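Example record for the data management plan.
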Amino acid sequence: MRLFAFTVVLSAVACLASAQTSKTWNPNLKNGYYQNPVIDADYSDPDVCRVGNDYYMTSSSFACFPGLQILHSTDLVNWKIIGHALTNEYDVLPEFAGGELDWHKRIQHGNYVWAPSIRYHDGWFYIYCGDPDQGLFMTRTQDPAGQWEPMVWVMKGKGLIDCCPLWDEDGKAYLSHGCAGSRAGVKSVLFVAPMNAEGTKVIGPSRIVYDGHEDQPTIEGTKFYKRNGYYYIMSPAGGVKYGWQVELRSKNPYGPYEEYVGLAQGKSKVNGPHQGAWVDTQNGEDWFLHFQDKHAYGRVVHLQPAKWVNDWLVIGEDKDGDGCGDAVATWKKPNLPSSGNFQPAEDDEFDSTELGLQWQFEGPYSHYWYFCDANKSRLRLYGVQAPEGFKNLADLQNTLLQKFPTENFTATAKVKFIPNPSYKNKDEEAGFIIKGQDYAAIKFVSVANGVAMRYVTCKDAMKGKAETQHVEIPLEMQQQPAPYTQKYAVDDIPQPRMATPDVYVRVKVKSSGTGNQIKSQAQFYYSLDNKKFTAIGEPFAVKEGKWIGAKVGFFNFRPTVSNDGAFLDVDWIRFEK
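Corresponding structural encoding:
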């Protein structure tokens, strides 16, 4: 059976005109082949649907907002971000709806948006996702690159996660899901519940249809399909870093279900290959997209060939003929038209009135936190008051970050720090950061006699540990010429504001080891002329965040209340190998 209607969404296709060719990672090989991962960045728990000749992906965004990034491809190898399903700060999950947001809350690392599914039904794109503390939600749109409707609370309950809808031929609708043991007190079981035809609410009891405690421990991440009269629940088991892909099938949506393992690590180097999406192409091929957990680099996306054998999906390459495939490193590309060679955006010249789609804050965000100055081709981050109980930079929601684009890369940015002269405490801070459960940063700190540039690290930052200062370098401020006229001291900043010189900040990230043994190290540098770069501090051992990979970006805050803050102006950020 074909699962998705054949229509074309022109706005998403048009977005590909501005696609970026990555300088850090290229999955395209010669002679019509590709290499895995097709996206070497942290798109955790990916799900994909096809609409005509177009493929749309979303993934877990957890506490990162704008949330539920939407990616588009025509060939399953080259992907571009085209939008977000959670874009407006008042259209987040219901906990924050119906009133003024408290932007001074500390981040709820690892919470909010877990394991979404994306489907197309009756002219609408749907995304279902779970919040382990609140329940299961849905949003929809007719244009995946445009505005999505506010979230609908489909099923309330603590511990409900990993949901996926299915609309049957008879008009009935169902929702599969799992549960989080950390909240529900039980795990390794899967459920199916009836939904109304609109897909807006569950209309009956959610029943356990499979218990994986004995054979498939930690089974979760449901994806619900129907093919050849069988209902399939495709779910990962065995845990994120070591697991495999389970397929369950039945002639009845409520079971009983038979089980089968269609993909495992086997003799490959790909640890834990599971949690993804089956797609059938317009040319009759079958493929499976899944993630691999690479610790500090997050959960990267692989594309596996697949084929149906006796109504089971064999995923990857089954060299030994046992019916369970191993993940492939390279393979012949799908028989699909390509729109080019690109990856999700990395570089940003900040020459638009909107933030690049790769950027996310670490929590529900405010548009008051930044200004995209297209006339001057720069991003201005404003100093935001730190949250109550602030201990270190792990607590800041207004940290603006993007995912690591691959294992080995260099990121360089041109920045300038402009303190608020009326701020009396002289402890405003802004800078360039790599952030996970630990962090390292080049800070610009307003001090009594000007601005100091510091290199700091913080181990166990999410546990509230204090950061360590390793280096401090005073920066000479740029002064306004006298007599005071209409001339400005720094760019367009009139007296009495002064600024640091342009500072070029750089980080080189390198990996060692492979698979479950992979490690990441970062060395920071600075320059005042973009020619001679000086290492600052010692190499930093990068660690992943809570359910996400480490990220790189910028921050700006002040610890106490005032009516204005410092500026961090970012002219550009550029990535290379």
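Summary line stored alongside the record: The chain has two helices and 38 strands.
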